[in-house]
Amino acid sequence: MIDLGVNIDHVATLRQARRTYEPDPLWAAAEAHLGGADAITVHLREDRRHIVDRDVELLRASVQTKLNLEMAATDEMVGIACRLKPEMVTLVPEGRHEVTTEGGLDVSGQEARLKQVLSRLQDAGIYVSLFIDADLPQVEASARVGARACEIHTGPYAHAFYASGRDIETVPAQAELTRIAQSGAAILDLGMRFNAGHALNYFNVQPVAALPGIRELHIGHAIVSRAVFVGLREAVREMKHLIRAVA
Asked: For residue 42, which of 11, 70, 79, 23 has the smallest C-alpha distance?
């Protein structure tokens, strides 16, 4: 059965736009939980552009589902994670000037460093996932550094799907979906958990959710956007229904 992790970063984005105290990500986590979220995901960035340290501390103390902390593999972030001990950490690349994460982590280019980071996190009892592109050498490198899971970056698939008229049967969309499926099979063969996320929405999620062996989907922007019109609890419920309908 596929779990849905709901990323609530953009609730904090709205708060930070006015530099005020609302909307509160803590409330968002509760609403997402009531809508059926299996995990709450937040990305604590170096520049604290949306989620801030206090948010993570309060979420750690109150979230009734799994807390997944997305973060860069820096000493600062590793220290925060080892202190707060979320159930799961997803290591992601991070660029100060990017609007959102633009690609997967280059695991094969920094194996020694990542092996040390994973060792520290796992010694603290934290389950570690790596956010990577649908690329077999990156999958293999993830296994070598000791990752328990890989989250495949679905952005290229989502963009191909949209550019092809939201038609999953087009060649570009099928090609990207096949890359995800092949990487997922390799992840499973190497004994890791196959997760996926980034730019998934209510129109493109089902083909990914139907892939064999997929375990978790992490979705944020689309759910928060829909919540503007239907409320967060309902937006999560609708997404989970779509996922479970094909799983």
From this structure: 70
Q: Which domain holds residue 121?
A: 3-246
Domain count, the chain: 1
- CATH number (domain holding residue 58): 3.20.20.70
Catalytic residue among 31, 70, 94, 176: 70
DSSP 153-221: E-HHHHHHHHHTTS-TTSHHHHHHHHHHHHHHHHHHHTT-EEEEESS--TTTHHHHHTSTTEEEEEE-H
Task: Give residue 103's pLDDT.
Answer: 85
Reported as a single tens digit per residue, the pLDDT across 78-103 is 999 999 999 999 999 986 555 455 68
**pTM of this prediction exceeds 0.85:** yes
Backbone angles phi and psi of 46, in degrees to 5:
-55, -40
Q: Which of 10, 43, 50, 218 is catalytic?
A: 43
Known catalytic membership, residue 140:
no
Please say if 70 is a catalytic residue.
Answer: yes
